[in-house]
């Protein structure tokens, strides 16, 4: 099973989350959370880990914080489990994907006003040429960006992989001969979100207001 869980941050709930949940995490993570100047940043980070733990409970898994390790590319993983996961946040949304069978990556971005010209160097010539002829360039850009980010996160090497070194074509891409599939995940009309995965999967999306189950 692969599931996506997401939530919105809330200033009203911040002190409650800190008081009731933070002390359940390792000391270094607690220090990281308390070191943030903005409550939004602290809660985004904390909620990511809370969503991960919630997802593990729904899968009847008992992985512990102590078994959380990091690859040389700083990607977290459970050293004693086959569970794969990835966390992303932007704006007021935090999203977490967990899978028992797949390498997965997820990226969510709030669709802010940006200068798309600033990102031309991150695109292949074909990608840029396609983007400039599309009427709604903002939506097209965030489609492009979240697919690319999700793919490099699923690959596990993150931003060490130049975004212009591969292309997504018809929801599929290859990174160093490793294939990944992409699927858009609708969470909120103000955001774009894409999931990258290696094989066909069953997907369970759990959100604040709805549960959606679909086949990929």
Nutshell version of this structure?
It is built from five helices and eleven strands, in the order E-H-H-H-E-E-E-E-E-H-H-E-E-E-E-E. The chain is α+β, with helices and mostly antiparallel strands and 216 residues long.
Task: Outline the structure in words.
By secondary structure, the protein is of the alpha+beta class. It has one domain (2-215): Ribosomal Protein L22, Chain A, CATH 3.90.470.20. It has helices spanning 14-21, 27-34, 39-58, 125-132, 137-155, and strands at residues 2-8, 68-70, 76-78, 84-90, 93-99, 104-110, 172-175, 178-184, 191-197, 202-206, 211-215. The strands form three sheets. Strands 4-5-1-10-11 form a five-stranded mixed sheet, covered by helices on one side. Strands 6-9-8-7 form a four-stranded antiparallel sheet, with helices on one face. The protein has a two-stranded antiparallel ribbon with strand order 2-3. A hairpin with a 6-residue loop joins β8 (178-184) and β9. α1 (14-21) packs across α3 (39-58). The longest helix is centred in the first third of the chain and has 20 residues, at 39-58.
